[in-house]
Specification:
Helices cover 23% and strands 45% of the residues. The protein contains 4 helices and 17 strands. The chain has a 17-stranded antiparallel sheet that branches. The protein is elongated and about 105 Å long.
């Protein structure tokens, strides 16, 4: 009798095979979890670095932004701290290609706090600012608006007139003495596509003005008034008047997209004209006893 052999399967599940399969699946799951963990770690590191960069951004970044916005005319030198809380030495210059520069004594200290409208900038300077200067900064598309909240009493601040010599010609030649202060009920300065606009009224009062170009102790007291309108297309109106003094100054003009345009005159009053002759020759074009001032 012939017995038929049963066909055995070439492979059958075993305990060892089952363990190997489960081990492979577990290893694959572990690889997936490890990949996810690495991605989360990288994302966490990037977020942490970004938060740290924002919280500890150096003060030099703010100084660079101000210098760029003012065409290098206002520089915050030796900036220390962060953009949120720092200090620097304010320096006036004649612009990007100018060699003239004049710095204030002491340091300007500031804080920058986020607000729903943008940021609140506060500034203090023992030598010059009346208390704490508050500036509400409102950024927008292609523009930045800064609203100055002026003190209820007294001027915004008072600075030495010699600081203005940093702007270059002709102020660097005049070598002014005395002080100037800024008074205002409140004003807003807006930069739109690199052009500046003033909304409000600002008075620049120069007291006890003197110059090394004359032997007189003082030339007089003067006021420059800037009046801007809410209309974005309107120019800021400038006016110069003499409060009192031997050097009489007067004139008017505008400050707009095309720059500053000013027409005025200077003349001697109550003193020998020869005493102020050198100064009158530098201020403008001589026309008899007066000097014609023309800018723009």
């Amino acid at each position: 009798m012939i017995r038929r052999k049963r066909n055995r399967p070439l492979w059958s599940p075993t305990v060892a095979g089952s363990a190997w399969s489960e081990s492979t699946l577990a290893e694959q799951g572990w690889e997936v979890e490890r990949g996810a963990a690495v991605r989360w770690a990288v994302a966490g590191a990037l977020v942490g670095a970004l938060v740290g960069l924002v919280l500890f951004a150096p003060a030099a970044w703010l100084a660079g932004a101000i210098a760029s916005a003012t065409n290098q005319r206002l520089i915050l030198a030796d900036a220390q701290g962060t953009i949120w809380s720092g200090s620097a030495v304010p320096v006036l210059t004649g612009g990007a290609d100018s060699r003239d520069a004049s710095m204030l004594p002491g340091r300007l200290e500031w804080t920058l706090s986020p607000r729903f409208y943008g940021a609140l900038f506060t500034a203090r300077e023992a030598c010059c600012i009346n208390g704490t200067m508050l500036v509400e900064v409102r950024p927008g598309f292609g523009r930045v608006k800064a609203t100055f909240v002026t003190p209820q009493t007294g001027p915004v601040g008072q600075w030495p007139s010699a600081w203005l010599s940093g702007y270059g010609t002709p102020l660097n030649t005049l070598q002014l003495g005395g002080t100037f202060r800024i008074t205002s009920p409140g004003f807003t300065v807006e930069q739109v596509e690199g052009r500046w606009r003033l909304d409000g009224k600002v008075d620049l009062e120069l007291d006890g003005v003197s110059s090394r170009l004359t032997t007189l102790d003082t030339l007089g007291n003067y006021r420059v008034t800037l009046t801007g309108g809410a209309n974005s297309n309107s120019s800021t109106v400038l006016s110069l008047t003499t409060q009192d003094g031997a050097l009489q100054l007067s004139g008017s003009g505008t400050w707009g997209p095309a720059g500053v345009k000013f027409r005025g005159e200077a003349r001697a009053a109550g003193v020998d004209e020869a005493v102020l002759a050198n100064l009158l020759n530098i201020i403008g074009r001589r026309d008899g006893a007066r000097s014609i001032i023309s800018i723009g």
